[in-house]
Amino acid sequence: MEFKDYYAIMGVARDATQDEIKRAYRKLARKYHPDVSKEADADARFKELGEAYEVLKDAEKRTAYDQLGANWKGGQEFRPPPDWNAGFEFSGGGFTGGDEADYSDFFASLFGRDFRAGGAGRASPHAKGEDHHAKVLINLEDTYHGATRTITLRVPGVDAQGHVITRERILNVTIPKGIREGQHIRLSGQGSAIGGEGQAGDLYLQIEFQAHPLYRVDGRDIYLDLPVAPWEAALGATVKVPTLGGIVEIKIPAGSGSGSGRKLRLNGRGLPGDPPGDCYVILAIALPPADTEAARDVYRKMAQELNFNPRAKMGV
Amino acid sequence: MNTENSVPQFSIGILEEHTQLTLADLCRACAIHAEQIIELVDVGVLEPQGREPAHWRFGGASLHRTRRVLRLQRDLGIDLAGAALALELLDEIESLRTRLRAMGGEY
Hints:
The complex is a heterodimer of chains A (about 325) and B (about 110).
Chain A: H1 6-10, H2 18-32, H3 42-56, H4 59-66, H5 105-111, H6 113-117, E1 132-138, H7 140-145, E2 147-158, E3 164-175, E4 184-187, E5 203-209, E6 215-218, E7 221-228, H8 230-235, E8 237-243, E9 246-252, E10 263-266, E11 279-285, H9 293-305
Parallel strand pairs in A: 1-5, 7-11
Antiparallel strand pairs in A: 2-3, 4-5, 6-7, 8-9, 10-11
Helix pairs in contact in A: 2-3
Chain B: E1 9-11, H1 15-18, E2 20-21, H2 23-30, H3 34-42, E3 58-59, H4 61-76, H5 80-102
Antiparallel strand pairs in B: 2-3
Helix pairs in contact in B: 4-5
């Protein structure tokens, strides 16, 4: 297994005081907290940080960890010394609220699996199994049309011989029409039961959208950039637009393409709901390339015929 | 229905839109005591319908809002009022980011 350099993870010196360690934890926790941070690896960083703090804030664990010596580097192959743990008596208690189940094998090899299970008891005012939470990545078409998704969950359990195993559980889940990013689907009774009896907990699936090549989303509204030729914007035209519900024809009024005329709204063509969202078409004028003599002639003619200074408002 | 061959099918609504929770539902789902939920209502993190706790009905979004506030409090060592403020600011940042993305900005 990999050695974990808890001092490096927390960015503190090996001789840091307990106060320094606490301050470092508070600061990094604010930075990497998954509810606050937008960094992609925030979840993993926060867990790692919680584990490091778990060890360094506790005088007993820190002393034990320090016994390993200062020569180890993070990521190095590690095996605990044979006489490890002799002479230490860990008193349990004092666990952070972090999720103990997420601690690394490295942590478990030093401080044991039982040890971490003995910490903070979960308040459970009602006898019911644990709720589970998972994320599901869907695309916009799934929420527009509704869809069925097959979801594979890894569920820890115990086999006939009493060994802890991970089983795969497959569920078919209907994605409700119009569900938005960040919303949840609750599957009653699909969490885990306590010791196989009693009422099972629930399973919550949080919806995330895959980035779409054409559309952007704001609530139920859909935004789409639509390239138009200069003459379509200037003279008006009827053009085809791809929407989630299929291709529609829209009329571009003459003189669009600048200012408020740049944004056209297609009522009710956003995500389904009550009321349904709208689809906003943002016109983007595309310049024809001047890659032939004929094309260059047209541009030269425009330069001669049109009295146009795009910088007039800048006074130059 | 949980046999190997037939994959269980689920058809359910959107938690945030089709679900109403009682105080007991919310306590159970978040594994906390009613007093803590009442505190969250007092600081305005949760806004149930109904006059008194026995008749309160919470929107489905309350569930993850509650869990989030509790995590912020627990992990960052801030008090309830601080966590409530953080939650409001995070909501605002999130909606601004969504706006920015929709307008074609980088985020």
